Predict the 3D structure of the following.
Amino acid sequence: MAIIYGLVSLQEVKAALGISPTDTASDAELEGVIEASSRLIERHCGRIFRSVAEVRRFTATDNYEVQIDDLHEVIYVRTDDDGDGVAEETWASTDYELLPVNRAVAAAGELQPWTQIVVPSWGTRVFPAGLLKGVAINGRWGFVQNDLTTPEPVRQAALIQAQLIFKAKDAPFGVVATGIDGNVIRMSSRLHPEASLLLEPYRKRSGLAY
């Protein structure tokens, strides 16, 4: 199968496994493993680590703020003020603010996504609180950096997890690797311990589910 939304490339995984770039015998299997590992990680974290351009609708529980999915670019914000199911009221960029304001405050200056839209103190508009899907945002969603790349710790976790899954079929008694503490790692329903450690800062603790 082809890789559609892989967090790492086929070439990177083959290099990590010591497979020659010219050896294509396992390419189809590895592509499936990469897709599976990538989706496993995104579900584990409750967010996506790729850029998706689309309109998403949200229900405001407050007139002045709305919790949103990970957002990194806004095209427009509209509201359905009359409750007819059509978000026809377009907000100017000065009508709202996106939070957090200081997005590049994580370790190594990593860019964080916006996760909340609020009415500023000078704002004259309000969100239609309680109206189902009353807020429409057209934008680019996902936890990515300015160049649309996946955060490096997440990429490394995907690389580790892909190797683990690929080796599972040949693992005697489920032993697929040895951890950094010398203990054996067996196949289980959980992520590879090192991958889980790398992903811990990226897990969404509250808000909207993936």
